[in-house]
Amino acid sequence: MAEPYDPAAEGARMSFGDTMSYGDYLALDRVLTAQQPLSGAHDEMLFIIQHQTGELWMKLMLHELSAARAAIAADRLQPAFKMLARVARIMEQLNSAWDVLRTMTPSDYTRFRGALGASSGFQSWQYRLIEFAAGNRNLAMTAPHAHRPDITALLEAELARPSLYDEALRAADRAGLPVPAEVLHRDLRARWAGHDGVTQVWAQVYADPEAHWPLYELAEKLVDFEDYFRRWRFNHVTTVERIIGLKRGTGGTGGVSYLRRMLEVELFPELWRLRTVL
To answer: Which of 228, 236, 267, 231 is nearest to 88 (CA)?
Structure first.
């Protein structure tokens, strides 16, 4: 019988009393003790970890989206493509996570739902920052965070910054395409409103990809992002309806009816409409 494998025989360090270990670097003591169920229900741990890991992925999304916008603003589109591709893959991870949550039945959820109080996913400030960063700037959604000046400041700073879509259109303008002046100088805090002139700009890019290849690829990266984002929203609706039916959400929203309205939100409407006019 072969001797048990000993990593130390190959030089692996086995003592960490005086140096940083894997757990130290990742602050695992803090991460793995952040799950504090408030009931005795078995499935509450699943619910907590599902949402905590989602928030971690969203933190990475915000990191990538911020860097992508800065790269686009500096006309460094190639690095931005990699960042936006990573965001799409993160959304794929978030979509897959719903499959795990759907193993929880309505009966499982009712055993701890009361422990949630008025907390609800629509209160996620990181999710709100992602929507604001993409261009869906609904000012009413800052209200749930009014009790936290630090979070309110983050949201307000995001509203003062050009969105991902704004930066893409500014890049198109710098490339010589006829982006309407009222779009370039719009109120950044306002929700995006579809504009025929913007549709025509993107139609020009798609009509001759070889002449506008960087913008063509940027447009497709934006479509990828929204495609995955739409799937995330759809899977959210399906999961919630499967678990709570048409009950109201814990935060007071209409639950499924609220989430279905969110399915109608378009982040980059002109990029979808141009497919009809080409």
So the answer is: 228
